[in-house]
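Subject — a protein and its fold
Fields — amino acid sequence, C-alpha cells
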Amino acid sequence: MTVTSAVLAFALVAGLLTIVPGLDTALVLRSTVARSRAHGFAALAGIQLGTLVWGAAAAGGAAALLAASQTAYRVLTVAGAAYMVWLGASMIWSSFRRPRADAAETGVLPPAGSRWKDFGTGLGTNLMNPKVGVFYVAAIPQFVPDGVNPLAMGVLLALMHCVLGTAWLSAVVLGAGYLGPRLRRSDAVRWLDRVTGGVLVAFGARLAASARG
C-alpha cells in the first residue's frame, strides 16, 4: 500500500461517514438557519479543529491510551454526555423563552451574539465525543503503509477528513443560507432549536448509557 492509495482508501471511508447526517450537520444547520452563514461557518471551523485534534491524538497514541483504559474512556464519556445533555437542554429551554416568541411575531431575531460561541460549540461537541477518538484509533492504523511515520500519516489522514468534512458542511451552510432569512420569520427557528437540542440530549443519554455498560 502506497501513501496515495492509503489516503484515497481512507477518503472513501471518511467520505461516506461525513455525508451521513449526525451531530455535526445538525449543529451547522442550526447555527446557519438560526443566525447566519457566518455563524454556520464558525461552527464548521470548530468542528474541523476538533477533528484535527483527535486525528493528532490518535496518531500520537493518546487516543489509543483512551481506548485501552476503561476508566479514562468512561470519565470522558460521562463528561461528554453531561456536556451534550446540558447543551441540548439549553437550546430547548431558550426556544421557549419569551424573547424568541416575540421575535417570531416581529420577524426580527435578538442579537446573534459572538461567532466564537458557535465555534466553541462545534469544537466542544467534537472534543467531548470519545467515539470520534475511538474511530481514529480503529481506522488510522489500517491506513499507515509500512515504513511511513505513523504520526505524519495520522495527521495527513485527519487533514483529508477535514477537507471532506469542510466541503460537505460548507454545502450545508450555503444551502441553508438561502432558507435562513425566510425561516427566521417563522416558528421554524424555535423548532430547529428544539430538534437539535433533542438530538444532543438523546446522544448524550446514549453516551451515558454506554458508559454504564
